[in-house]
Amino acid sequence: MPSTTQQTVVPEERTERAPGSRPDWQRRSRRRLLADRITVGTLVAYVAGLLLLLVLVPTVAMLFEPDGEAWSRLAEPRVATAAKNTVVIGVASTLSATVVGFLFAYALSRPDIRGRAVLRVMALLPLISPPFVVGLAVLLLFGRRGLITHELLGLDISLLGLGGLWLVQTLAFFPMATLTLLPTLKNIGSTLEWASRDLGWTWFQTFRRVTLPLAFPTILNALLLVGMFVITDFGNPVLIGAGYQVLSVEAYVQAVGRQDFGMAAVLCVLLFVPTLILFLIQRRVLARRSAVTVSGKTGSLPPAPLPAAVRRGLLTVLGLVSVLMILIYGSILVGSFTRAWGADWSLTLNHWQTALLRGDDIRNSALFSATAAIITTISTLVAAYVVHRTRVFGRGMMDGLAVLPSAIPGTMIGISWLLTFNEPPIALTGTALILVLVMVVRAIPVGYRTAVTTINQISPSIDEAATDLGASRARVIVQIMFPLLGGAFTTSLVFGFLHAINTLSAVIFLTSPGIGLGAPTIVNLAEFGQWGAATGVAAGLMVVSFAGLAVAKLALGSRLRLYDL
User: Fold this and answer.
1) In this structure, what DSSP letter does residue 129 have?
2) What does the record list as coiled-coil region(s) (predicted)?
């Protein structure tokens, strides 16, 4: 008999929902939407609060600090002289630094140039060490008791003043032009060079009709960038400017020497106007610059070899600059072991003992800079995400405030912070926190640009897909965006440390007797003629900078591409 199977049907259980209630998936969706809004709101509040408090408020306070009497003193001859000197040295140093920077970048982009490793090191040194160290070294080499002027040539002359300042700023800031120009010169297609050769053009015709026109937008960008650094330079004019007064130093004299903060604010605003104009022009140039012109297919052909005469001329000029750079940094090292520079050349360790006595200042520089680098890196990554991955109100303003500190002179930042945070409700003057935060502000623009460049290379479809799969905004940020931003994180972290430890003009107004830093200590010692002690502290600060970079390179290896030279 055939067997029969009896199936039992179990009725489906149904849960009764209260009238007006929503399904579980809708409730989960609403909870996730609420959580995402809280996440974005928290990030926006952090970025907006940081930029408003540390950038906008001090800047606006500085603009409204001078009264009518202070503004009326703009007609004083001293102010007019400082303004004229700032323009003269700004134009001269910007042009010469950009020319030298272009020559270095052009040589580094050519495979047939010998000694490129040496040239690369020469272009890196001023980027890693404090810029005013060059001014200190020129004093040791070309001052009245200088090694070259007095000891070797027997001359009772000095390069103090306009000539020395022009030389120092050229050597201190040409690496910025090199860093800006090198990618463009590398990306100019070799096919164009060979095509011009086939047309019978000489090297000079190719250089004039092909290389320069294609590189012109970047050259203009380098001019504007170097110009902003030159006219706001403080350390070098203080050390070797002598009677050649510029606006940054005059503002320092008014604030520290005469306690006339109204007049100091006027001078800072007067200095801020040209830097802001250069900054706005630079942003416009970068926005309109076409990447297609210089970054298309370069072809498989190597660059056309340079004529022998061009190679010899290029190596001669850059060789002289390199020798001068070696003398400059060598004099700092030798000076730290010399008993009395220009008078007693016997060796001593006294200056290193002085540096050890000032070890708290160097330690503070290292500790505060590391802390500032961490805060800067996290803040800039969050800011880049908020501005370029959300649609919150005020993104344009946050973007502008994040890059604005690159246009504000360091002297203006220091004085504005001294005025803004000297009294309640936010009294930070005399604390370590104000030094860390001002370092953060000085380093924010570069860290932010690095983060923006990286985040724009990440397709929005990646985080959109994760969101479609149910990931919350916080999970997308932590598990997807931040790992993909690892390169920007390491670059911003190391650059932030180097930039912070070498900051001078913004922090010199904010140090207190109990909390000193290495960079202001070097300038103060040099101003009082204690050259040996100044070189000892300078050498110690450079050792810390190079050690930090070396540790980062060992830890990160090829992932660290701080300067693409």
Assistant:
1) S
2) none
Counting every residue written for the chain, the total comes to 565
Structure tokens at 162: 């306009």
- Give the contacts of 276 (CB within 8 A, at least 6 positions apart): 407
User: Residue 548 corresponds to which amino acid?
Assistant: G
- Across 287-315, b (16+ Cβ under 10 Å) vs e yields eeeeeeebeeeeeeeebbebeeebbeebb
Task: Dihedral sign for Cα 63, 67, 68, 70, please.
Answer: negative
Kindly tell me if the per-residue pLDDT of 417 is higher than 90. Answer: yes
Q: Is 447 left (phi over 0), alpha (psi -120 to 50) or beta?
A: alpha
Res 7: pLDDT: 47
- Supply angle C-alpha 441, 446, 448, rounded to 5: 80
Look at strands 338-340 and 344-347 and give their pairing.
Answer: antiparallel
Confidence of residue 2 (pLDDT cuts 50, 70, 90): very low
Q: How far apart are CA 243 and CA 446, in angstroms?
A: 34
Q: Name every residue whose Cβ is closer than 8 Å to that of residue 362 and which is 6 or more positions away in sequence.
A: 355, 518, 537, 540, 541, 544
| pLDDT bucket at 489, cuts 50 / 70 / 90 | confident
* Confidence at residue 23, expressed as pLDDT on a 0 to 100 scale: 52
* Residue carrying the six token digits 């200190």: 136
**d(Cα 270, Cα 112) in Å, to the nearest integer?**
47
CB 293 within 8 A of CB 232: no
Find out whether 266 and 66 touch, Cβ atoms under 8 Å. Answer: yes
Q: In this structure, what are the phi and psi dihedrals at residue 321, rounded to the nearest 5 degrees?
A: -65, -40
What is the SS3 assignment for 160?
coil
Pick the more confident residue, 477 or 266.
266
**Least reliable range by pLDDT among 38-52, 117-131, 163-177:** 117-131
Contact call for residues 518 and 362 (beta carbons, < 8 A): yes
Q: Give the per-residue pLDDT at 548.
A: 85
**In terms of C-beta density within 10 A (0-12 exposed, 13-18 middle, 19 or more buried), how is residue 180 classed?**
buried
User: 10 Å Cβ neighbour count for 197?
Assistant: 14
Question: HEC profile for 61-86?
Answer: HHHCCCCHHHHHHHHCHHHHHHHHHH
Tokens 């000076």 belong to residue: 335
pTM of structure? 0.84
Cβ-based neighbours of 158, under 8 Å, separated by 6 or more: 142, 143, 144, 146, 149, 164
Q: Is 421 helix (H, G, I), strand (E, B) or coil?
A: coil
At 345, is the secondary structure helix, strand, or coil? Answer: strand
